[in-house]
Amino acid sequence: MINIGNRRELFVDNFLIDEEKTTAAAVVHKPVKRDVAFVHDAQWETQGAAYHNIVITPEGKRYMYYKSMHQDIKPDGADATMRRICVIESEDGLNWTRPVLDKTPVFGKRINAPTNNIISHLYDYYDNMFVFYDTNPNCPENERYKAVYGEWGTGLFGYVGDGINFAFHPGENIHEMMKKSLLISGKDSGCYFDSLNTVYYNNEIGKYVAFVRGFHVGEDYYPPDPDVDDAVRDIRYMVSDDFWNWSYPVPFKYNDEYDYQLYANAIAPYYRAPHIFCATPTRYVAWPEWIDSFEKLPNAEERRHRHRGKSMNDAIFMSSRDGQNWFRYGEAFMTAGPEHHSNWKYGDCYPCVGFTETPGEIKGTDPYLSMFCKEDHEGEPTKLYRYSLRLDGFVSRTATLKPQMLVTKPFVYDGKELEINFETSALGYMKFKLRANDSTEIYSREVMGDKVDRIVGFENGTPADLAGKEVVMEIEMSDASIYSFKFN
């Protein structure tokens, strides 16, 4: 028995769909590129910025964490790419600024930055760092902000902090702290952690969940030291009761059989339906040989000599209700876009982890999701672009002008009214029918418009009449799309 209660249900998978009776197609919607949200032009960002992730505080303030890079000189005199963890902030999700921090007043030998937005320590060499706000009701208030940092084959380490200041798990000395903060070893788990690993407290199950980076070679998911040119990048799932002690990482299971290489996982619980994880992972595509198209893509001559010059990226969309079984779509959710001087290469399409709601741009229109993705412009500062997507708008069930049907599996709900997120043309429509297992039913006339929260009017009763009963919902659709629904 499927009991949805008052949950918002999205059409990102087939969980509620009667596939034999449904003819309306599933359509993945690409986000729309809007504007430059932030320019990474500080002295400590001259070699780029990557692995962005958003944390929204209970008060509604947004923090965005990321890794910055620049060339500098280490204490031993070696010339190296220095990596920092930085933060920017926003009150509205549209305007982002650097907070003025003095945690690292002078760092490196090539630049002097009395104030900056760096939160990592002077010579820490971070490949990545993911920050989340812990919603565990038993979490101490001074540990609400947690972070994980992954090293290639060493392991995944945990931190606690206040959003700006983070420290290893308490211990008597640095070696003890590192040992206590080692969440899981890479050598024992087949995981290598060298991209953004994501962690959350899952209120649905009362445990912490983590999604981490691994490699497999053929059917071997635990190679001791894989050659990255032969291995396939994958994502794995693990759980914990206390954040410090974790289960063995288990590879994801998918609804398809493609062995895509998935880089940064970009997984987050969807805030309007937190029982569903939504992800926009970067897909890594390595072409086996040089073909004519590479001659015609931007910077062909430079590409010939570039590391991974025959590789490129896009991003796909996938979702899960339990963290281990994933429903994904092979068609790209995000691509590099129109060709310019420095795209269509390895490094494109690394979406920021997390979504933030922003106001509609026309007065009176519905709010929408803002998403973010960096672009690496060679010889220019890295730019962070804002993208927009309809609320719940990852995937819709969509009908042509010729009427088609969406039919659900039987489910139980609790509520008095049906709220839908939908759009139609002027000629298009949607007609709803709720039919209980005792053959009683209610139905609507044509519903038209474009709203994220329309209440459906019924002709011969209300949803309250069938609440608590097992029902099937039938939707006749013409030139229309539905993104989500819930009972209030």
Overall description:
This protein has helices spanning 174-181, 186-189, 292-296, 300-305; strands spanning 2-5, 9-10, 25-28, 32-40, 49-56, 62-73, 79-90, 130-133, 145-151, 155-161, 166-168, 182-185, 198-202, 207-216, 232-240, 250-251, 253-254, 261-262, 267-270, 273-279, 282-286, 311-315, 318-320, 325-328, 356-358, 368-375, 382-390, 395-399, 404-407, 411-413, 418-436, 441-443, 450-455, 471-487. It is mostly beta strands. It folds into two domains: 2-28 and 396-487, Jelly Rolls; 32-393, Tachylectin-2, Chain A. The chain is globular and about 80 Å long.
Can you lay out the helices and strands and say which pair or pack?
Blueprint: E1 2-5, E2 9-10, E3 25-28, E4 32-40, E5 49-56, E6 62-73, E7 79-90, E8 130-133, E9 145-151, E10 155-161, E11 166-168, H1 174-181, E12 182-185, H2 186-189, E13 198-202, E14 207-216, E15 232-240, E16 250-251, E17 253-254, E18 261-262, E19 267-270, E20 273-279, E21 282-286, H3 292-296, H4 300-305, E22 311-315, E23 318-320, E24 325-328, E25 356-358, E26 368-375, E27 382-390, E28 395-399, E29 404-407, E30 411-413, E31 418-436, E32 441-443, E33 450-455, E34 471-487
Parallel strand pairs: 1-30, 17-24
Antiparallel strand pairs: 2-34, 3-28, 4-27, 5-6, 6-7, 8-9, 9-10, 10-11, 10-12, 13-14, 14-15, 15-16, 18-21, 19-20, 20-23, 21-22, 23-24, 25-26, 26-27, 28-34, 29-34, 31-32, 31-33, 31-34
